C-alpha cells in the first residue's frame, strides 16, 4: 500500500489521460468537477498563505496537472452533452440554470465576461509578470552569487550557509523559468474553453435539431443550459488557478504571507485611509448619490485612519522600552504595572544604569569610513550609489592577491565632516582623510602636460599626485592633453583600498589567524594537525603573518609558510624565538611570488647598496634585548636618506614600485631604517629574487 501511495501522482495523471479517451458516466463527471473545484480552491489559498514562492515550488508542475485534469473533464462532459441530449450531470445543470435564470442571452454574456476577464486580465498579466520575473532573476544571478562570495570571504556566513544560499538562487531561477512557460498553459486553457463552449452550443444544436426533430427554441434552451454550465464548472477552477498563478509570481518582494503583508502595509498608511474617507464624503454631495451608505463608509474610514495614526505614534515609545529591556525590580510586578512601565519612555541615564549596556559602547569597528552628506549618494544603493559593490569587488580581489580577507567596513555619515569630506578610521582612530567634489572629475597631471586644463588644484589622496578637479565637459579635452581622468567614486575607493593595504597588518587578529588555519585544514589536514598548536602557537603564527603583511608579502600560499615554519622548528626542536629570522626564511621560500610583484617584462629594476657602505652597515650592527639593531652615526644616516630620495625619482616613469636590493643579512635592518621615511619602498634580498629574472640596477647608494 505504501509503495502504491508513492506512485499516486503518476496514477492520477494516467487516469486523467484516460479521461480523454474513455467515456465517463454523468455521476463520475459530477465527482470530478467537485474535486477540480476543491483542488483549485486549495491551491489559491496556499499561494496566499506562503511567505515566498519557493515554499510552493511544485506549482508549475501542479499547474500542468490541474489543467490536464480540467481538459479531461471538459472532454468527458462534452461527450455526454453531445451524446445524451445536453445532459452531463447535476452540477453542470445546476450551474446552467442558476446563471441563465431563464434568459439565454444574459447567461451567455455573463459567461463570456468571465472567460474574457480571465483571458485578457488575469492570465495576460500573470504571463507578463512571470516573463519579467524570469528574465530579471536570471540577470541578477551573477550579482547575487558575488554577494554570497563576499559574505563568505568576510566571514558573515559559513560554507554551509553559502551553499544553501547558492542552491536557493539556482532554485529561484529554475522556478521562475518554469513559471514563464507554465503561464502559457493557463493562456491556452482559456482559449480552449472558448472553443469547447462554441462546439457544445453549435454542435449540440445541430445534433438536437437534426436527430431529435425538436423545435429550435427547445434545442437552444437545452444546449445553452448545458453549454453555460459546462463552461462555468471549468472556468471557475481555471479562474482560481489563474489567480493563484498571478499571486505566486507577484510574491517576489513580500516579507510575509499575503494576509500579513496586506494588513501591515495598509495599517502603516493611516493618512491615506483618512483622505479616502474625506473623498467619499465629498462625493456624497453629487445629486442622486445614496447618502446614508456613503456617510457610513466615510465615517468608518476617517475614524479607522485616526485610530491607526494614534497607535503608530505610541509604538516608538513601546519599542524603546522593549529595546532597553527594563526589568521589574523584584521580578514579580503585577501585569498592569509592567504594561505601564512598557509605555513609559526610558531616559538615557536610566538605560546606562545597567552595566551590561555600558559595555556595548566599548566595541570598535576594524575599519570605518565616514563621509559628509553630499557624498551619501555614492553609498546609497537606492539612489544608484555603487560604493558598496566596489568595496565588495576590492575585498574579493585583495583576498585573491594577498590571501587575507579584509574585515567588514562600516559606512556611516557624519555631521562632524564638511559636506564633501570623508575620513577612514582603523580601530576607531582616523588614519586618512580626503575631499571629493561629486559633480567633478579628478584629472591627474602628467609630468609634462601639453596644455593646462581649467580646474580646482588639489592633491590626489591615495598617491599624493598633483591633480585638478575639472568639470565633466572638460574630460575629453583633459585626456587629449595627457591627463588621467578619474571619477569621484574611483578616487574614494582607491584611497580606501590603499589605506587598507598599508594597514592590513594591523587588522589581522587572532580570530582571523585561527580562521585561516581552519581553511588550510581543508586542503592540508595532516600539515595543520602536526603544526598547530603543539609545535607552532597561534600567537607566534600571528606575528609571522603580521610581519609578512607589513611588507606587502602575500600570505596566500599558507601551506608553504607553515612548512617553512615546521622546518625551522625541526632544526632546533623548539619554537623559534627569532621572528625576523623565520620571516626571512619564509620570504626566501616565497621568492617566486615576491619576484612576480616587482618584475616587469622579465626585468626587475632596482637600487643597490655600495659594497663599502654595506660593509660599514654590517659592522654597525649591535645586539640588544630584542635582537640586532642598526646603530649608524647621524651623518651616515642623513646621507643614505638623501641619496635614497634622489634615486627614487628614477622610478617615476616605471609601473613597478621602488625596490632596493641588499644582502640577506642587511635586508630587514635597511627596511626598518627607510620605512619611516619612505614606507612604499620595498627592500628585497638577493635570495628573494627568482633566478629567471634579469636584475637591472638603475642607481646605487654609496658611502660618502
Automatic annotation (TrEMBL):
Keyword Repressor appears in the UniProt entry: no
Topology with respect to the bilayer: Multi-pass membrane protein
Regions crossing the membrane: 7-26, 32-50, 62-82, 102-122, 191-212, 232-254, 266-286
Keyword Transmembrane tagged: yes
Main location as per UniProt: membrane
Top-level taxon in the UniProt lineage: Bacteria
Alphabetical keyword list: Bacterial flagellum biogenesis, Bacterial flagellum protein export, Cell membrane, Cell projection, Cilium, Flagellum, Membrane, Protein transport, Transmembrane, Transmembrane helix, Transport
Gene3D superfamilies tied to this protein: FHIPEP family, domain 1, FHIPEP family, domain 3, FHIPEP family, domain 4
Compartments (UniProt record): Cell membrane
PANTHER family tied to this protein: FLAGELLAR BIOSYNTHESIS PROTEIN FLHA-RELATED, FLAGELLAR EXPORT PROTEIN, MEMBRANE FLHA SUBUNIT-RELATED
Function: Required for formation of the rod structure of the flagellar apparatus. Together with FliI and FliH, may constitute the export apparatus of flagellin.
Family: Belongs to the FHIPEP (flagella/HR/invasion proteins export pore) family.
Protein name, as recorded: Flagellar biosynthesis protein FlhA
Species per Swiss-Prot/TrEMBL record: Enterocloster alcoholdehydrogenati
Amino acid at each position: 500500500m505504501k509503495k502504491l501511495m508513492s506512485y499516486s501522482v503518476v496514477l492520477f495523471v494516467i487516469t486523467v489521460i484516460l479521461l480523454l479517451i474513455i467515456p465517463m458516466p454523468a455521476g463520475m463527471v459530477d465527482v470530478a468537477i467537485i474535486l477540480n473545484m476543491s483542488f483549485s480552491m486549495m491551491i489559491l489559498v496556499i499561494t496566499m498563505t506562503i511567505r515566498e514562492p519557493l515554499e510552493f515550488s511544485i506549482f508549475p508542475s501542479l499547474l500542468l496537472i490541474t489543467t490536464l485534469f480540467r481538459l479531461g473533464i471538459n472532454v468527458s462532459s462534452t461527450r455526454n452533452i453531445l451524446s445524451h441530449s445536453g445532459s452531463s450531470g447535476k452540477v453542470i445543470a445546476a450551474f446552467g440554470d442558476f446563471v441563465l435564470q431563464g434568459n439565454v442571452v444574459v447567461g451567455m454574456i455573463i459567461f463570456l465576461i468571465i472567460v474574457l476577464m480571465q483571458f485578457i486580465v488575469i492570465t495576460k498579466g500573470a504571463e507578463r509578470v512571470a516573463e519579467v520575473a524570469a528574465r530579471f532573476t536570471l540577470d541578477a544571478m551573477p550579482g547575487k552569487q558575488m554577494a554570497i562570495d563576499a559574505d563568505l570571504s568576510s566571514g558573515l556566513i559559513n560554507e554551509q550557509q553559502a551553499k544553501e544560499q547558492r542552491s536557493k538562487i539556482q532554485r529561484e531561477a529554475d522556478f521562475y523559468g518554469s513559471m514563464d512557460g507554465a503561464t502559457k498553459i493557463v493562456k491556452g486553457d482559456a482559449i480552449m474553453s472558448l472553443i469547447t463552449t462554441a462546439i457544445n452550443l453549435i454542435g449540440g444544436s445541430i445534433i438536437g435539431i437534426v436527430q431529435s426533430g425538436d423545435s429550435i427554441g427547445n434545442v437552444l434552451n437545452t444546449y445553452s443550459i448545458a453549454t453555460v454550465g459546462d463552461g462555468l464548472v471549468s472556468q471557475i477552477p481555471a479562474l482560481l488557478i489563474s489567480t493563484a498563478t498571478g499571486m505566486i509570481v507577484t510574491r517576489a518582494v513580500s516579507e510575509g504571507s499575503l494576509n500579513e503583508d496586506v494588513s501591515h502595509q495598509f495599517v502603516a498608511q493611516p493618512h491615506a485611509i483618512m483622505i479616502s474617507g474625506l473623498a467619499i464624503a465629498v462625493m456624497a454631495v453629487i445629486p442622486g448619490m445614496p447618502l446614508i451608505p456613503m456617510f457610513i463608509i466615510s465615517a468608518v474610514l476617517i475614524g479607522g485612519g485616526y485610530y491607526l495614526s494614534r497607535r503608530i505614534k505610541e509604538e516608538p515609545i513601546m519599542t524603546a522600552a522593549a529595546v532597553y529591556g527594563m526589568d521589574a525590580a523584584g521580578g514579580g510586578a503585577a501585569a498592569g504595572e509592567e504594561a505601564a512601565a512598557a509605555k513609559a519612555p526610558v531616559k538615557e541615564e536610566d538605560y546606562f544604569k545597567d552595566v551590561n549596556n555600558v559595555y556595548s559602547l566599548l566595541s570598535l569597528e576594524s575599519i570605518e569610513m565616514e563621509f559628509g552628506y553630499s557624498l551619501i549618494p555614492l553609498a546609497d544603493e537606492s539612489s544608484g550609489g555603487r560604493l558598496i559593490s566596489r568595496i565588495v569587488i576590492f575585498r574579493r580581489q585583495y583576498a585573491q592577491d594577498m590571501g587575507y580577507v579584509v574585515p567588514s567596513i562600516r559606512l556611516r555619515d557624519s555631521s562632524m565632516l564638511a559636506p564633501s569630506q570623508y575620513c577612514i578610521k582603523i580601530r576607531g582612530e582616523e588614519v586618512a582623510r580626503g575631499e571629493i567634489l561629486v559633480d567633478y572629475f579628478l584629472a591627474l597631471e602628467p609630468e609634462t602636460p601639453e596644455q593646462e586644463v581649467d580646474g580646482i588644484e588639489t592633491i590626489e589622496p591615495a598617491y599624493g599626485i598633483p591633480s585638478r578637479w575639472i568639470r565633466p565637459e572638460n574630460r575629453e579635452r583633459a585626456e587629449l592633453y595627457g591627463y588621467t581622468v578619474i571619477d569621484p567614486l574611483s578616487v574614494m575607493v582607491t584611497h580606501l583600498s590603499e589605506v587598507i593595504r598599508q594597514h592590513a597588518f594591523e587588522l589581522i587578529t587572532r580570530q582571523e589567524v585561527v580562521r585561516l588555519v581552519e581553511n588550510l585544514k581543508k586542503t592540508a589536514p595532516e600539515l595543520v594537525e602536526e603544526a598547530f598548536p603543539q609545535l607552532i602557537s597561534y600567537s607566534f603564527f600571528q606575528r609571522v603573518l603580521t610581519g609578512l603583511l607589513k611588507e606587502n608579502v602575500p600570505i596566500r600560499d599558507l601551506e608553504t609558510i607553515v612548512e617553512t615554519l615546521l622546518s625551522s622548528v625541526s632544526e632546533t626542536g623548539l619554537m623559534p624565538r627569532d621572528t625576523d629570522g623565520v620571516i626571512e626564511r619564509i620570504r626566501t621560500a616565497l621568492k617566486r611570488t615576491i619576484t612576480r610583484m616587482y618584475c616587469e617584462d622579465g626585468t626587475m629594476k632596482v637600487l643597490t647598496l655600495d659594497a663599502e657602505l654595506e660593509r660599514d652597515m654590517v659592522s654597525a650592527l649591535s645586539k640588544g634585548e630584542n635582537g640586532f639593531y642598526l646603530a649608524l652615526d647621524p651623518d651616515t644616516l642623513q646621507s643614505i636618506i638623501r641619496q635614497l630620495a634622489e634615486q627614487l625619482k628614477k622610478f617615476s616613469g616605471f609601473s613597478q614600485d621602488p625596490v632596493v636590493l641588499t644582502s640577506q643579512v642587511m635586508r630587514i635592518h635597511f627596511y626598518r631604517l627607510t620605512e619611516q621615511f619612505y614606507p612604499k619602498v620595498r627592500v628585497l634580498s638577493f635570495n628573494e629574487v627568482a633566478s629567471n629574472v634579469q636584475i637591472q640596477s638603475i642607481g646605487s647608494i654609496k658611502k660618502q
